[in-house]
Amino acid sequence: MTETAQDTTREAVAETVPAQTIEPPQDLSWRQLIASALVCILLLAAGAYILSGYLHALAWALVFAVALWPLHQRFRCRYHASGELASALFTAFVGLVILTPLALLAADALMELRQLVDYARMAGESGLPVPDAVTHLPYAGPWIAQWWTENLSHAGWARDLLKQFNTASTRELGAMVGANAVRRTLLFIMCLLSLFFLFLYGESVVAQSRIVSRRLFGARGEAVARQMIASVRGTLNGLVLVAVGEGLVMTATYLVTHTPHPILLGALTTFAAMIPFAAAFAIGLAAVVAAVSVGAAAAAIIVVVGAVVVFLADHFVRPKLIGSATNMPFIWVLLGILGGVERFELLGLFLGPAIMAALVSLWRDLSAPQADN
């Protein structure tokens, strides 16, 4: 059969079959919209459920990437470095900044553990002598010294105390601590890995985020996002960098005054200084340690230097850095920091001010005179 005959046959068959017109269903647009919204919500919920164990690490990676992105771009432009090299260097820098204090603390803790083991061996053999600092305590010193002599100075008290411990509970506690350490190590590795890819593909992520923000929220959404990014960077400068400066000054003070465990106390002061008004408690603890171990003069030096450092940092340096970057009153930044720490722990140092910056930006847009137009 030729091609002409086949075409004629197809046309004849088509004429015999009645044409069926398919009318589009009514209100197809809003049905598609609802279906798309439901699918998006389900996908987002499923993604959040799958990544729930790693959201904390991803959030920290995002905070570091947002805070260090300008330095990353300047480094690439100045040294003409490739994206892979710059991303690897900045990721390694973040890892070293976090791991170096932890390594110093671990080394100090091992030294203290060795001394504690020797002290425990001596205590098991001959008991614990009454420390001189206890006998010189005002008011309660003689009473504490007498109780110490009756309960801790004789040999064998340590063995009696160890017999009271439950071996099974101790093993469970050790397993729990080990599992927690492995979990946190995995989260730290995932944070650094996510940070590397954020640095590597940061330009495309920024471009895509701008497109999505404009499509969903318009130009105002992009402005709010910029304000949140500025708040994260301002918080990093005003909290973390200032806290590191306070910690370095106080660590030097602890070293000069010969306070025991200066590195440990300096790290504690740095960590506490990230939270407004919390550095005073760490400095007070260091002053107590210095008063007991060294003397009242060393404690007085620590208190005076700490008061000056905290006063300058909390009243001048920190409000200037955070307020100029976020362009909002410091009281809102302070409330965001305190509320964020209460709800999200250390991550709330950055999430709290970012959320407050978004709220303040929206309030200013809505309360502006041209908003009615």
UniProtKB/TrEMBL annotation:
Any one annotated GO CC term: membrane
Pfam family membership, one: AI-2E_transport
Membrane-crossing segments per the record: 33-51, 57-73, 85-107, 186-206, 236-257, 263-283, 290-313, 319-339, 346-363
Annotated compartments: Membrane
Listed InterPro entries: AI-2E-like
Entry keyword Membrane: yes
Record key words, sorted: Membrane, Transmembrane, Transmembrane helix
Coiled-coil ranges (or none): none
Membrane topology term: Multi-pass membrane protein
Family per similarity comment: Belongs to the autoinducer-2 exporter (AI-2E) (TC 2.A.86) family.
Protein name as it appears in the record: Permease
UniProt organism field: freshwater sediment metagenome
